[in-house]
Design goal:
Oligomer: single chain
CATH topology: Rossmann fold
Strand content: 15-25%
CATH class: Alpha Beta
Shape: globular
CATH architecture: 3-Layer(aba) Sandwich
Helix content: 40-55%
Length: 196
């Protein structure tokens, strides 16, 4: 479960799973909110019907959110799909993906492609998606996450620079034309048409 933050909100969107650390995102949001009183958190997650652990995590998140009117919890079970996720990512000032374990974590590249700064868990699959100059926004603790959220929300120039660098990084490394070019180079090499 991921989050989006605007001065009004953080967007955290992904599968509902304890490895996505939604409870840690909530703790980080609460710490950041001490310095940014108008902060809101939107947690968006997808549930699988055959994943009882996901339902348990969602129950815990909903119980906490029920005590804080600035936390909004949405899921595919409440009619939130790709279009809504897209709208929340675009409307948020910042996206959080504080995963404890993660493969590629598509949410990160989706947010970067939209020019959004991302505070994310320091995991292998996420690390490769963050432009090297912005590696300090990869976090290991709730406190680091809160500090980075606060830093980016207080510095719109840094947030914008991160978003621009992120979009360029995704364009260079993860879009289909680049992947197709890699495939064509491999075929050419296998056919002996090139030496490299």
């Amino acid at each position: 479960m991921g989050g989006a933050v605007r001065y009004s909100g953080i967007n955290d969107e992904t599968r509902v799973d304890r490895w996505k650390d939604p409870l840690g995102v909530i703790q980080a949001y609460r710490l950041a909110r001490q310095e940014i009183p108008g902060l809101q958190l939107v947690l968006i997650g997808a549930l699988a019907g055959d994943d009882p652990e996901g339902w348990s995590v969602l129950e815990q998140v909903n119980a906490i959110a029920a005590t804080d009117s600035n936390i909004l919890v949405l899921s595919n079970m409440t009619g939130v799909g790709n279009m809504e996720v897209n709208a929340f990512q675009r409307g948020s000032d910042l996206v959080v993906q504080k995963s404890l374990k993660e493969g590629f974590g598509l949410v990160v590249s989706e947010a970067l492609w939209k020019g959004k700064a991302v505070v994310a868990g320091n995991t292998t699959g996420i690390r490769m998606q963050i432009p090297p100059a912005f590696a300090p926004f990869l976090v290991d603790t709730v406190e680091e996450c809160a500090a980075r959220i606060t830093q980016l929300l207080k510095d719109s120039a840094a947030r914008e620079a991160f978003g621009e660098a992120g979009r360029a990084h995704v364009r260079r490394n993860f879009l289909l034309p680049r992947l197709l070019l890699d495939d064509l180079r491999l075929v050419a090499r296998l056919m002996g048409l090139t030496r490299h």
